[in-house]
Amino acid sequence: MDIGITLFNHILSNQKINPKATGAFSRLLMAIVVAAKMVQRDVARAGLVDVLGRAGGFNVQGEEVQKLDNIANQVLKRLLFSSGEVCTLVSEEEADLIEVPRQYRRGDYLIHFDPLDGSSNIDANVSIGTIFSIYRRITSPETDPELKDVLQPGLNQVAAGYIIYGSSCMLVYSTGSGVHGFTLDPSVGEFILSYPKIEIPKKGKIYSTNEGNSAYWDQATRDYIDWLKNPDSEHSKPYTSRYIGSLVADFHRNLLYGGIYLYPADRRDPLKPTGKLRLMCEANPMSFLVEQAGGLATTGTKRILEIKPTEIHQRVPLIIGSSEDVKAYQEFVAKSDEKINL
Ligand code: AHG
Ligand code: MN
Ligand code: MN
Q1: Is the pTM of this model over 0.85?
Q2: Which of 152, 180, 303, 309 is deepest in the core (most CB within 10 A)?
Q3: Could you give all domains of the chain from N- to C-terminal order, each with its CATH number?
Q4: Residue 97 confidence (pLDDT)
């Protein structure tokens, strides 16, 4: 595939090679692309117009909502509804399934999304993102969508991706045939293919984790991180530590350079014994992408994509990245007797 192709054409050429395609899925992806450009515009003006700072409330996860969290949430909802291709939405910022308002056509797809990821970084002008995960409904199209539609395992995703609002704006996505990255050319307002068929290096030299939590980790995770820091040329150690605190940005860097990202279970907050990241809107889409790029994603003992979800906002430990690095972590976990509540 040629570098230089627009995202619009990329979506359409994928549609053409599928004889059963109706165009519905393409329309949905196009809606996400337009939403991405709108959120990018708002993020880029942060500081100039009144979009910075806290919105004055807490979301369903008990986290403080920023104004841009709300703006991104509204933009995505509006564009996805007007595509006419969704039957329900689930947002990190809303407690329940979001119903499609009556005036819109209802389609066969449902989307889990994190409208703004890394939002505690917004005011400091650090890279943030949007994450999306697309499924096809499994109940009859004649009926209202049910919980079992939105609680499908990550393996059922038909597409997933993210937008990163960084030094440039990029959209990275997969429909199950590789991972492709597009960079927004602001002068023409188009996403242009810049990273076709991304493959994550089999082994990296970077580890990314919030090491401030290490006192609350299980012993296997502490041992693994200590091991990474021990000089040993055979394993290219010590590793370099890189942690931004925006999953999208940390993941994106490791996808390109190789490495491992860990947000393990910890004992800091008894209400969050399985770590901080959300299965449906964070772990699953990133795991779909990393596997498509040749990497791995696990809780330490379980493949993320095989987890059978029980709640729309459930949290999960996430260890994700280069295959050899993730396997090395799994060996530490397998050797350990101690397990945190997984
Ligand atoms: P969000 O901004 O969508 O709530 O997500 C924040 C997440 C994720 O982006 C990041 O990797 C992680 O929280 C950082 O958590 P710590 O500050 O605990 O390291
Ligand atoms: Mn997030
Ligand atoms: Mn968020």
Answers
A1: yes
A2: 180
A3: 7-195 (3.30.540.10), 206-341 (3.40.190.80)
A4: 97
